[in-house]
Amino acid sequence: MDTDSANTRYEAVAEIGEALMGKVYKARDLKNEGRFVALKKVRVQTEEEGMPLSTIREVAVLRQLEAFEHPNVVRLFDVSQSLGPTEKPDSLWSLSMWIRT
Fold first, then answer.
1. What residues does 98 pair with on adjacent strands?
2. Number of structural domains found in the chain
3. Does the pTM exceed 0.85?
4. What does the alpha-carbon distance between residue 25 and residue 38 come to, in Å, rounded to a whole number?
5. pLDDT grade, residue 73 (50/70/90)?
6. Domain region containing 44
7. Average pLDDT, integer, range 46-65
8. Is the pLDDT score of 43 beyond 90?
9. Are 46 and 89 in contact (CB under 8 A)?
10. Is 85 domain-assigned?
11. What Gene Ontology cellular component terms go with this record (predicted)?
12. How far apart are CA 25 and CA 82, in angstroms?
């Protein structure tokens, strides 16, 4: 999922949470029968080499959980990064299943 496709494929319906690192939105998948998804944007402090190692590790763990099916684990659909004005990553987007509470 690149940022352009995130902007055209998903419609933010409501902001459902905000923390120090970013925001989570309830979004509608416009290309998948309008199903609801959770779209999380996390601000990332990039280093000279790019994405911080801690962020890379977190994404790797989330990717490992993709194959794990359990009712108490939210399914991750996709992860991408968006570039800031200096062409360095400035945020990370994750797309996961929407669970109504």
1. none
2. 1
3. no
4. 6
5. confident
6. 10-100
7. 77
8. no
9. yes
10. yes
11. cyclin-dependent protein kinase holoenzyme complex; cytoplasm; nucleus
12. 16
Structure-token match 């902007």, residue found:
7
CATH code of residue 15 = 3.30.200.20
SS (H, E, C) the chain: CCHHHHHHHEEEEEEEEEECCEEEEEEEECCCCCCEEEEEEEECCCECCECCHHHHHHHHHHHHHCCCCCCCCCCEEEEEEEECCCCCEEEEEEEEECCCC
Q: Are residues 79 and 94 in contact, defined by beta-carbon separation less than 8 angstroms?
A: yes
Which residue is it, tokens 């790797």? 60
**Percent of the chain with pLDDT strictly greater than 70:** 78
> φ and ψ at 77, to 5 degrees?
-95, -40
Give me 87's structure tokens.
């062409």
